[in-house]
């Protein structure tokens, strides 16, 4: 069994309205040192034993279901997890 942590972020060239709003709030609060905020997604998957290569399977899941690769980048970490 595997635990997979997927981190999805907007590509640098894509405008991030949520990040811009958060940046503005930081500037207007007690944290003016925060220069920029980019907002993304964190997705956690638990994958059972599979005959497929886990890394290839996660790439496929990201490209086909979890990530809009036109505007988002992703990275992931795979950990072996104890079966319950």
Automatic annotation (TrEMBL):
Per its record, the protein catalyses: N(2)-formyl-N(1)-(5-phospho-beta-D-ribosyl)glycinamide + L-glutamine + ATP + H2O = 2-formamido-N(1)-(5-O-phospho-beta-D-ribosyl)acetamidine + L-glutamate + ADP + phosphate + H(+)
A Pfam match: PurS
Where does this one sit in the cell? Cytoplasm
> Per its UniProt entry, what is the enzyme's top EC class, as one word?
ligase
TM segments? none
Q: Which InterPro entries match?
A: PurS, PurS-like_sf
Extract one GO molecular function annotation from the record: phosphoribosylformylglycinamidine synthase activity
For this UniProt record, give its keywords in alphabetical order, as a comma-separated list: ATP-binding, Cytoplasm, Ligase, Nucleotide-binding, Purine biosynthesis
Pathway assignment reads: Purine metabolism; IMP biosynthesis via de novo pathway; 5-amino-1-(5-phospho-D-ribosyl)imidazole from N(2)-formyl-N(1)-(5-phospho-D-ribosyl)glycinamide: step 1/2
| E.C. no | 6.3.5.3
Q: What does this protein do?
A: Part of the phosphoribosylformylglycinamidine synthase complex involved in the purines biosynthetic pathway. Catalyzes the ATP-dependent conversion of formylglycinamide ribonucleotide (FGAR) and glutamine to yield formylglycinamidine ribonucleotide (FGAM) and glutamate. The FGAM synthase complex is composed of three subunits. PurQ produces an ammonia molecule by converting glutamine to glutamate. PurL transfers the ammonia molecule to FGAR to form FGAM in an ATP-dependent manner.
Subunit structure and binding partners: Part of the FGAM synthase complex composed of 1 PurL, 1 PurQ and 2 PurS subunits.
Q: What's the family?
A: Belongs to the PurS family.
Q: Which NCBIfam families match?
A: phosphoribosylformylglycinamidine synthase subunit PurS, PRK05974.1
* The protein's name: Phosphoribosylformylglycinamidine synthase subunit PurS
Write the gene name: purS
């Amino acid at each position: 069994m595997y635990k997979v942590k997927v981190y999805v972020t907007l590509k640098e060239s894509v405008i991030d309205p949520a990040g811009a709003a958060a940046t503005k709030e930081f500037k207007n609060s007690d944290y003016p040192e925060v220069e920029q905020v980019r907002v993304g997604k964190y997705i956690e998957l638990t994958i059972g034993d599979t005959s497929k290569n886990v890394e290839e399977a996660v790439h496929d899941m990201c490209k086909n279901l979890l990530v809009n690769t036109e505007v988002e980048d992703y990275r992931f970490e795979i950990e072996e997890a104890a079966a319950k």
